[in-house]
Amino acid sequence: MQNTAIQVRDLQKSYKKLNVLKGVNFSVEQGSIFALLGSNGAGKTTLVKILTTLLKQDGGTAIVNGFDVASQPDHVRQAISLTGQFAAVDEMLTGQENLIMIARLRRLKQPRQVADELLTRFGLIDAANRRASTYSGGMRRRLDLAMSLVGTPPILFLDEPTTGLDPEARIEMWKVVKELADGGITVFLTTQYLDEAEQLADRIAILHEGKIIASGTLAELKQLFPPAQKEYVEKQPTLEEIFLAIIGKKEEH
Ligand code: ADP
Fold first, then answer.
1. I need a surface site. Which of 7, 116, 121, 236 has the fewest CB within 10 A?
2. Three-state SS annotation for 199-243
3. Is residue 120 assigned to a domain?
4. Is residue 142 a part of any domain in this protein?
């Protein structure tokens, strides 16, 4: 249990008659990257909302950083941060001001120093004094991620972190996420991009029709599928092959 960052058992959630989660089970190891895959409407955001205490489940349990999301939501909130698809950056403020604001809200002692460290780490120090409205999509997303790391929460939820980014910014984002996990942070990410899961995740779970229908490492998932079928094509022998075969036979007898 000590090394488990997230433990989900028989989690259920309905919106009126719509049964979205029908008994979801999985666990996430500390310091690993876990990718939840599923098509649009599968219930990924619903699951993230429950794990981040924004929504109550109807049944089952979810333990995050050792705390029950339903009965100890305040403890859970202190251990996590959530970065959504739509960056929570204040466009009118500079990158540095955005970070200082969050550091103050979290009552950190040296907000400016915290801000500058994060700006450096996310390659934004040169743009520190520019308004966020002048940032590219990738820069904004990095600033958003930096803001969610103020106060170094051990578990990071990323809901579709690269949706809408160009390929270069996506690769940059993947690099940052990998570095965070290397530094011991647990990353729970949802994605619709299979290549993102392939690139980043230590373990992958597929949510489909309310349940986790498959989970494991990429190699384990690949083994679930039968090997590529071999196709036999009749090949006409060449005259040379016929000749050699006849000769060979004749020599044998
Ligand atoms: P995903 O993130 O995988 O796209 P969601 O968790 O957003 O899936 O949604 C799962 C299903 O629940 C969808 O069919 C969606 O329309 C529905 N849904 C989500 N939120 C609500 C809500 N507040 N009220 C009613 N239905 C909802």
1. 236
2. HHCCEEEEEECCEEEEEECHHHHHHHCCCCCCCCCCCCCCHHHHH
3. no
4. no
pLDDT in tens, 134-159: 999 889 988 998 998 898 899 999 98
For residue 124, report the distance from its CA to the centre of ligand 1, in Å: 35
Is the shortest distance between the CB of 95 and ligand 1 below 6 Å? no
Cβ of 45 closer than 6 Å to ligand 1, yes or no, is yes
Tell me which residue has its CA closest to atom 6 in ligand 1: 43
Please work out whether the CB of residue 38 comes within 6 Å of at least one atom of ligand 1.
yes
Give the residue numbers spanning the domain of 45.
4-83+159-252
Residue 174 lies in a domain: yes
Kindly give the number of the ligand 1 atom that is closest to the alpha carbon of 40: 4
Going by alpha carbons, the residue nearest to atom 24 of ligand 1 is 15
The stretches of the chain forming alpha helices (DSSP H) are 44-51, 73-79, 95-105, 111-121, 137-148, 167-182, 194-200, 218-224, 239-252
pLDDT tens string 35-67 = 999 888 999 999 999 999 999 999 999 999 999
Q: From the CA of 223, how far away is ligand 1's center (Å)?
A: 31
145 assigned to some structural domain: no
Q: What is the CATH number of the domain that holds 177?
A: 3.40.50.300
